[in-house]
Specification:
single chain; alpha/beta; Nucleotidyltransferase, domain 5; 7-stranded mixed β-sheet; 10 helices
């Protein structure tokens, strides 16, 4: 949402579990994958969206760029979490120019932070239903402290931050690139990250509902760690299917089942709330993305609870990927974790 600058950019998804890099090259037919990389972060590096260990993050960003043989580059990144507010509001009809002049005053009524402490952006969605004297506006606010931290890390790594987006919108961009939606289709996405699961509902390219669920991949890791008295690294390995000495398979399966039930129930309640408050908007499909999207049983249980199809998103579905350069099996297995980065890579400086 926040653009600081048209040429190809490097996308960096700085998440609480890892930093992911994606670069695309645009052709007349679409996009080719030019660069793809990922490196893990320690659990203490980013907490609740706040960058706690900037030195380590800078080092990892530099290493990723060096590995991709990229030097000074324009970069797109994104933010999420409790320091980001996304809200649809209704205001008296006005022009975009007039709203730009008054948005800070208008936003004060809806943003639970000191307005001087946030960066604001907005998009006019159109006329309010049934009232031509009103307009619907999508308001986005991010704490300046978070924005400054992310841009400082990128600058210190020798990069030029030109776009700072919101994770949920990046995932939406990824889906719109890779899948054909009919006019009027209402689509839901859930990006299951390490700390948060981000729910977004959109129609005709416009986000109409957003909510973060504080239940995600780390919850399962923590349950495994606690139950078996493992280190974080051992529990994470067990979650991903590696053999860890001393683990009882039936007990591990039960922990998985309980965690999947908990997460799917919370996501289903969030989606049910949207449908109850927007009865005219019937969701036709939900796409799962993020590092924990493929957790065993999650897709099927969520579909059962919601009563409509749930699919694990493939961020490279419409992207040409050279099999000599990028392992197809890796793209298939790890693809959902690159959803945010792929959505960012589509952006262009100044758009």
């Amino acid at each position: 949402m926040f653009s600081f600058g048209k040429k190809s950019i490097v996308a960096l998804d700085i998440g609480s579990y890892s930093v992911k890099l994606v670069q695309l090259s645009k052709t007349k037919k679409g996009y080719n994958l030019a660069n793809l990389a990922s490196m893990p972060l320690s659990p203490e590096a980013i907490v609740d969206g706040a960058l706690m260990d900037t030195g380590t993050i800078v080092d990892i960003v530099r290493e990723l760029m060096a590995g991709a043989k990229l030097k000074l580059a324009d970069v797109a990144a994104s933010v999420s979490g409790h320091s980001v507010i996304i809200k649809k509001i209704v205001l008296p009809a006005t022009t975009e120019e007039e709203l730009a002049d008054s948005i800070q005053w208008e936003a004060e009524q809806y943003i639970p932070f000191d307005i001087a402490d946030v960066n604001l952006d907005f998009q006019i969605l159109g006329e309010a239903p049934g009232d031509s004297s009103q307009i619907e506006v999508l308001l986005v606010a991010a704490k300046k402290e978070i924005v400054d931290d992310y841009t400082a890390v990128l600058t210190e790594a020798g990069l030029n931050p030109v776009i700072l987006d919101v994770d949920a919108f990046a995932v939406q961009n990824m889906l719109e690139l890779n899948y054909d939606f009919e006019e009027g289709d209402v689509i839901a996405s859930v990006n299951v990250g390490a700390e948060l699961s981000m729910v977004n509902v959109f129609k005709d390219g416009i986000s109409i509902f957003n909510r973060d669920v504080s239940n995600a991949g780390n919850r399962l890791t923590q349950e495994i760690q606690k139950h078996f008295s493992l280190s974080h690294e051992e529990a994470e390995a067990a979650k991903l299917g590696a053999e860890v000495e001393g683990l009882d398979a039936s007990e591990l399966k039960a922990i998985f089942a309980e965690a999947v039930e908990s997460l799917s129930s919370e996501v289903a309640r969030t989606i049910d709330f949207f449908m109850a408050t927007n009865p005219e908007d019937k969701i036709v499909k939900l796409y799962l993305s993020g590092g924990a999207a493929g957790t065993a049983g999650l897709r099927d249980l969520l579909s059962e609870k919601l009563g409509f199809p749930v699919e694990i998103a493939d961020p490279f579905n419409s992207v040409v990927c050279d099999e000599k350069k990028f392992d197809p099996d890796y793209l298939k297995d790890s693809g959902p974790s690159f959803a945010v980065a792929l959505g960012l890579a589509i952006r262009e400086a100044g758009d």
